[in-house]
Structures are given as structure tokens and as C-alpha cells.
Amino acid sequence: MTWSFLHPGRLWLLFGLLLFVGVYIWTLLRRRKFVVRFSSNRLIDQIAPRRPGIGRHITAAMFLMGLGVGTLGVAQPFKDERVPKNRATIILAMDTSLSMKATDVSPSRIEAAKTSAKTFVDSLPATLNLGLVSFDTGARVDVDPTTDRSRVKQSIDKLKLRQGTAIGDAVQASLDLIAEVPKGEDGKAVPAVIVLLSDGSTTVGTPTEEAIPIAKKAGVPVWTIAYGTPDGVISVQDPNSGENVTVSVPVDAQALAELADGTGGDTFLAESAEDLSAVYSKLGSSIGYEVEKVEVTFRYFVVAMALMALSSLASLAFFQRIP
Hints:
Blueprint (H helix, E strand, L loop, with lengths): L3 E2 L8 H22 L5 H7 L5 H22 L2 E8 L4 E7 L13 H15 L5 E7 L3 E8 L2 H9 L9 H13 L12 E7 L9 H11 L3 E6 L5 E5 L6 E5 L4 H11 L3 E4 L2 H15 L1 E7 L1 H23 L4
Parallel strand pairs: 3-4, 3-6, 6-7, 7-10
Antiparallel strand pairs: 1-2, 2-11, 4-5, 8-9
């Protein structure tokens, strides 16, 4: 049972229950003093016949417990419960630049990112709309906002790597998708957020700093995940010599943090597949649900009624009457 109440001031009624307990104990003591005045056992048996003492106490205890639980119900107890958001929209923007093939994250940044992203997709409420954008030398809309999770996961599996990192374009493409989502019955835009995963900073297209005020004006926060380690490297072909050369591709967490801070979102750093799964789990709880106070008064009254009923049954069993 929860111990949070909508009207905690009503708990003062419990002092009335304590008074009831005090009267019960006083009655027991007074009866005992009255009985010992008689010297004749015959008179004691006639005036105060022996009764099942333990039964009397059990009956009273259940009755008082029922009153106590019922009193707690009067204070309207509640609990905090996660409730799926209705018609909210998430755009998952995934980096498909060549640097994502680095193997500093096993088996590679992109493969680990795909696996964790699909788990994230499955964790979201069924009523929530989800879209997919991928970006490298430009930004592409892979899936319009939908509740069809299989479409999103299939598109994630098909992602291919290309040159370039167009983070600014990805934010703009995501905002365009969100703007197309029909407004709610109250005429207001549905709540939306962009979850952007990348391992670097913008190299082509719209600069990230230009996308920040656009997202802020639209009221859409960008949650960023900087994925990878400072030690990431990839092998690329030198256009001049034709030989494969090793290129360092460290994660640029600072650029992604600035994007999140500027749009009112939050930023995370994931250096392993396990870290990324943990981040997605947190995001799923933060974005896909909202916490509401759910009243559970009926549970207390059910318990109180059950205790009262048991008290009546005990009275019938021990004294052949209902109190």
C-alpha cells in the first residue's frame, strides 16, 4: 500500500481510533476489577461467565483494524503511476556516416546502434507515433511518424553508411516531419521530441548552430546521444594512392551537448552497447510516459470491508452473534 494521500489532514481522524482503543482497554480493566469483588465462584459465573477471551480480542482487533484502514481510505491515498502519453511523437535520427563503422564498440558502432535502437522502439507505448530519419552527406526520411513498429525496425536494419555528417539537416528534416503531424482536438500541436544519435559533429549541410534556434522556436527538444569512444578509428581508401589508411574518428560529445542544451533537451554519452541500451531505457521512460497521481482509495475500502466481515464471522463463531 502507498502512504501518500490527497488529503493528509484527514489522518487526524486516526486519533479517534486511538480513543476507541483506549476505551476498549479501560472497559476490560474495569470489568476485571468489578469481577474480583465477588468472593463466590457461583456468583462470578452467573454475573461474569467465562467467555473465550482470545476470541473476544481477535474480534475486536479485526474490527479496529477495519476502522483504521477505512480511515486511511477517507484521506484518499494515491500512488504515482507511469501512464503512456497519447499521440506524442518521437523522431529517431540516426547517424549513418562512415565513422559509424568504427569497431571501438563491438561489433561496430552502427551494428550496436541498430540493435539498441530496435529494443528502444519495442519499449515505447503503442499509441506513440515514431518516425525515423537517417543522416550522412544529407538527411533522409526513412519512416514517417507511425505506430507500426515493424516498419521502423525493418528500416533500421536497412541503414547503410555513407560519407558526411549532416546533423543540422537531420534536425530540420525531423522538425518538418513533426510539423505534418495533425494537431490535437484542442487545436494544439502534439508533444514531440527528437532523439538524435551520432558520433561526430556536422561536416556538411546546415550548421548545427543554425538548427538550434529553429528547434527551440518549434518547441521541440533534441535529446542527443554521443556514441563511441575517443579511440575510434576506421580504414578508408586514400583517393590519391588508392591504399587503405587508418583515420581517427573520436566521438564529439561537446557538439552534441551544445545541440541538446540549446533546444531544451538532454545529452548522454554512450561508450558501449550496454551504455547505449541504458540510455535508451531511460529515454523510453522519460519520453514515452508521464507520471500521474492515481487514486487507490477503493483498495483501502476493500481491505476495510474484508476486515469488518472477518470481525463479524469471528463474533458469530465465538459468541453466536454479530457485533
